[in-house]
Amino acid sequence: MTNQPDDDALKRSVSDHWEANAETWTKHVRAGYDIYRDALHTPAFLEMLPDVEGLNGLDVGCGEGANTRSLARASAKMTGIDIAPTFVRHALAQENQEPLGIHYLTADALHLPFDDAQFDFASAFMSMMDMPQQGDVLKEIFRILKPQGFFQFTILHPCFVPPFRKNVRNEDGQVIAVQVADYFVDIDGSVETWWFSNLPQAEREQSKPFNIPRFHRTLSEWIGMINMAGFTLEASVEPMASEELAAQEKVVADTRVTPIAWIVRLRKP
Fold first, then answer.
1. Are 226 and 138 in contact (CB under 8 A)?
2. Is the separation of the CB atoms in 119 and 146 below 8 Å?
3. How far apart are alpha carbons 41 and 252 in whole angstroms?
4. What residues does 155 pair with on adjacent strands?
């Protein structure tokens, strides 16, 4: 007996949700509403990244291409893939306006349309936790990497952003603690509904919230999947906002209490 039909239905659900999100998501991130990404997580990711000049790279779950473009500006030869055609359309439109030599295509990370050992490195910015069968995705990325190639990705922190997280604030509105729960609950496609936290009310009134399927795994499960895929864990970072950044961008101040993200670099032997 096989569960393949259920797996196929789940993958279609993920694809459908992200396609439905893509138009508004592109509008909002390009308007600067993803403060965690722009102010903290992407800078930390790029600071941790090895030199990629001249390397052939694959960005998995590239969205509208902002981070793919950052890697191309670091002189990598980039390909970006996403499961949502609308994201790819916006990424291609930006590439036509500002050519960086990036190739984009619509593709599923579970079945990468590339040859074995084709890429020097791969990246994934806040996309792996939104994919089903992450262990199989890791194996696919391992397959398309050259020996000694690396995969660097960032996800919501398994320990500090489990299915339930709530900031605890003092009477001045400052985050002083974080409540978490359901850490050991494996969720497969549970849909979370939200906006970017600093989205103006006027924009909320004319925009639908995002519906995002999520696939939470514990830290131990992530390490197990990494090992099963054949990778070695080379480095990791848990970004924390500086005092200056937290004062400037209050949205990210909670990362001075616990991290939101976990950035990991894996190496293929």
1. yes
2. yes
3. 10
4. 262
Residue 155 · residue 129 · CB < 8 Å:
yes
- Mean predicted confidence (pLDDT) in 184-198: 93
Give yes or no for residue 201 having a pLDDT over 50.
Answer: yes
Residues with Cβ < 8 Å from 53, sequence gap 6 or more?
74, 75, 76
**128, 134, 159, 174 from 221: Cα distances, Å:** 13, 10, 11, 33
**What is the spatial distance between Cα 62 and Cα 106, in angstroms, rounded to a whole number?**
10
Q: What are phi and psi of 90, to 5 degrees?
A: -70, -40
Q: CA triplet 133, 148, 79: central angle to 5 degrees?
A: 60
pTM of the predicted protein model: 0.95
pLDDT score, position 3:
43
Whether 75 contacts 53, CB under 8 Å:
yes
CB 44 within 8 A of CB 157: no
Cα 202 → chain centroid: 27
- Give φ, ψ of 130 to 5 degrees: -100, 10
Q: What tens digit of pLDDT does each residue of 22-79 get? A: 999 999 999 999 999 999 999 999 999 999 999 999 999 999 999 999 999 999 999 9
**Domains of the chain by range and CATH?**
4-157+219-267 (3.40.50.150)
pLDDT in the model for residue 175: 95
Mean pLDDT of 118-141: 97
